[in-house]
Write a structure and sequence with these properties.
Order of helices and strands: EHEHEEEHEEEEH
CATH architecture: 3-Layer(aba) Sandwich
CATH topology: Rossmann fold
Shape: globular
Bound molecules: inosinic acid
Strand order of the largest sheet: 4-3-2-5-6-7
Number of domains: 1
Length: 181
């Protein structure tokens, strides 16, 4: 691996570790939806697009993908918990089996907002999947498929960004605190 970018403190998860876990999550979903006619994976932009691309190509059951986008933290690593819908689904999800695919759950505000919003549209079932969850107190929203727990630091790579930088790194790394403080 080439030298770490000076903004980065350390690699937390390697490409191999992430790929192995993505495959395990795909197997779990295949098992749980073996009897379903199809599943709709809803990726939350922008952070989840790389995870969704890998997960969907790994998944050996009929499925489609769609996207939503909600307001995020902006360019700073702080949030007031307010969530706003920026881009909605292209098709209704009534009577469909739906899985929300998130990159990371921090306070849980985003996932809770998405869960409550989509539940109102009466899907046949609604589950949540997040590749990462930060180890700290978060809103009481269930994560049915969870990849990894991470320390409460700012992480980048594999879809996760800081002010739109470092998003396409193939691994997950901790951002130096000096960069965002
Ligand atoms: P929550 O609403 O507090 O759970 O925040 C979730 C959203 O915040 C994620 O979808 C990410 O866009 C962003 N986020 C939270 N922590 C990180 C991080 O460490 N790196 C990059 N994005 C993060």
């Amino acid at each position: 691996m080439s030298a770490l970018h000076p903004d980065l403190k350390r690699v937390i998860l390697s490409t191999e570790e992430i790929q192995t876990r993505v495959k395990e999550i795909a197997r779990q979903i295949e098992h749980d939806y073996a009897d379903a006619e199809r599943v709709i994976l809803i990726g939350i932009l922008k952070g989840a697009f790389i995870f969704l691309a890998d997960l969907s190509r790994e998944l050996n059951i009929p499925h489609t993908v769609d996207f939503m986008s909600v307001s995020s933290y902006g360019d700073a690593a702080v949030s007031n918990g307010a969530v706003r819908l920026i881009l909605d689904l292209r098709k209704p999800i009534k009577n469909e089996h739906v899985i929300i695919v998130e990159d990371i759950v921090d306070t849980g505000s985003t996932l809770q907002y998405l869960y409550n919003t989509l539940k109102l549209r009466k899907p046949a079932s609604l589950r949540t999947c997040s590749l990462f969850q930060k180890k700290r107190e978060s809103k009481d929203v269930p994560i049915d498929y969870k990849g990894f727990e991470l320390p409460d630091v700012w992480v980048v790579g594999y879809g996760l960004d800081y002010a739109d930088t470092h998003r396409t790194l193939p691994y997950v790394a901790e951002l130096r605190a000096e960069v965002y403080e």
